[in-house]
Design brief:
single chain, 180 residues, Rossmann fold, alpha/beta, five-stranded parallel β-sheet
Length: 180
């Protein structure tokens, strides 16, 4: 099974990129991963879309379409998801009700320095995904709070209990994807 991964941060050493790397490291056998970039699509503009989809958008959408599932790691910016992540999702949501996300099983997780992790951002992300008819992985949730102490300076997840929990998450996520 191939999983498209999306880190909701552009920073190379971000904790959410680190979560994606850890998910890949801890994943059960039989999974492959394709890392998608959200930094290349231009700001969504219906006039641009009407003239033809930009190549960066076509690549992003093709990565989602080719995957069996999607895994998104989002930071929490001002109680929500980052604008760059929302922008990429907005491009991928077109055409309405026929997007590459429709029916695509999707998991989400996130890390933040706050003690509540990314609870509010994930709530908003879930609402966005459900609006595109995207099935969202229900349990267990991964809300990594106090992330500054759980990642090193390069954004690698070093906290052993969090790594153990993430391994259980990946096992459950893989099982959910297989259920058809």
């Amino acid at each position: 099974m191939n999983i498209a991964t999306i880190a909701g941060s552009l920073r190379q050493t971000s904790t959410n990129r680190g979560l994606i790397r850890a998910c890949i490291e801890l994943a059960p056998e039989g999974l492959t991963f394709d890392t998608l970039s959200i930094g290349e699509p231009p700001h969504y503009n219906g006039d641009v879309a009407a003239r033809g989809e930009p190549e960066a958008v076509t690549r992003f959408k093709a990565g989602i379409d080719a995957a069996d599932a999607v895994l998104i790691a989002t930071p929490e910016y001002n109680y929500s998801i980052p604008g760059v992540l929302k922008n990429a999702i907005d491009w991928a949501s077109r055409p309405a009700y026929q997007s590459v996300f429709a029916g695509k099983k999707t998991g989400m997780l996130g890390a933040a320095y706050s003690v509540v992790g990314t609870a509010r951002a994930q709530s908003h992300l879930k609402q966005i995904l459900l609006g595109m008819a995207t099935p969202v992985f229900p349990f267990p949730e991964v809300l990594v709070g106090a992330a500054k102490a759980k990642f090193d300076a390069e954004g690698n997840l070093i906290d052993v209990p969090t790594r153990e929990f993430l391994a259980k998450f990946m096992l459950a996520f893989a099982g959910w994807i297989k259920t058809g």
